[in-house]
Design a protein that fits this description.
mainly beta; disordered N terminus; globular; about 50% strand; about 280 residues; 4-stranded antiparallel beta sheet
């Protein structure tokens, strides 16, 4: 299928390797995954296995590595920029969206109307978008009320750029995931990510935009739990492999100041959260 102009494949543009001048630091010695930074940047909120065997949210101090359970169950965590809230998906027969405030360990829900078909996405200004029964819904965390969505959320949206202009959407091609980066307002395709390695089976997982919106991080590999981390520059479509292996089932997360990266990696048979400075050095 031909695509004109700035439409294009990036599979053949993999160039170079990036490395960190430091080793990543494990910040969950007792295990954990799907972590995000608290608003102050000195703590993280993440998912761990509780004593009863169920998944629970925990709050961890990055300096002391002390952790505490907050009495809330959930996963699919996302930090809401310029806000004190952490968005997550609460378990149940019909999982619902809720949000959590680390400062006082309070959680709130959106009522049972917030039952998404897929991942919810966070937009600038504290807006939460998701699709429910193929209908786009929107909630304003500042107003604490549902609002009229400004656009229809593209099907299977996984991430939205910090300025709200671009979305990463997933579709299936030959029974494998393919990620497309599109302009929300026009629906135009920007890049097509099919994974790298030439096997035809390599998947692409866990996309997240860098804080400046100019690059896209994602995981790629034969299996999501043992994937490589890549960084794609949207302007030229060049993808660089980063010297890190991570669990692509959970997207990496940037600190509020954009200078640290938190990611999940499986070590010794269990997931842990690792912290490293951003950006890496390009060789």
């Amino acid at each position: 299928m031909k695509r004109a102009g700035w439409y294009g494949m990036v599979g053949g543009l993999l160039m170079g390797m990036a490395a960190w001048s430091e080793l990543p630091r494990c910040v969950t010695p007792d295990g954990g995954w799907n972590g995000v930074f608290a608003p102050d940047g000195g703590e993280i909120v993440y998912v761990a296995r509780g004593t009863n065997g169920e998944e629970e949210l925990r709050l961890g101090n990055l300096e002391t590595l002390e952790t505490v359970a907050v009495g809330v169950r959930g996963d699919k965590l996302q930090r809401v920029p310029d806000s004190e809230w952490i968005l997550f998906l609460a378990p149940g027969h019909f999982p619902v969206l809720e949000y959590f405030r680390p400062s006082d360990r309070q959680s709130r829900d959106f009522t049972d109307k917030a039952t998404p078909d897929g991942p919810a996405v966070v937009l600038p200004g504290g807006l939460i978008y998701w699709a429910a029964e193929a209908v786009t819904q929107a909630y304003d965390l500042n107003q604490r009320d549902f609002v009229e969505p400004a656009f229809e959320l593209p099907d299977h949206t996984l991430a939205v750029s910090p300025d709200g202009r671009l979305a990463v959407v997933e579709r299936r091609e030959a029974e494998r995931p393919v990620l497309e980066v599109i302009e929300i307002a026009t629906g135009k395709l920007r890049h097509l990510l099919e994974g790298f390695g030439g096997t035809g089976k390599v998947g692409v997982y866990a996309p997240v935009f860098t804080p400046d919106g100019r690059q896209l991080l994602y995981a790629s590999g034969e299996a999501p739990e043992r994937a490589k981390l890549f960084c794609l520059t949207l302007e030229d479509g060049v993808a660089v492999e980063l010297s890190a292996e991570l669990d692509g089932r959970y997207p990496p997360a940037f600190s509020p100041d954009g200078r640290q990266l938190l990611f999940t990696a499986v070590t010794d048979g269990r997931p842990n959260l690792w912290l490293i400075s951003w950006p890496p050095e390009i060789e």
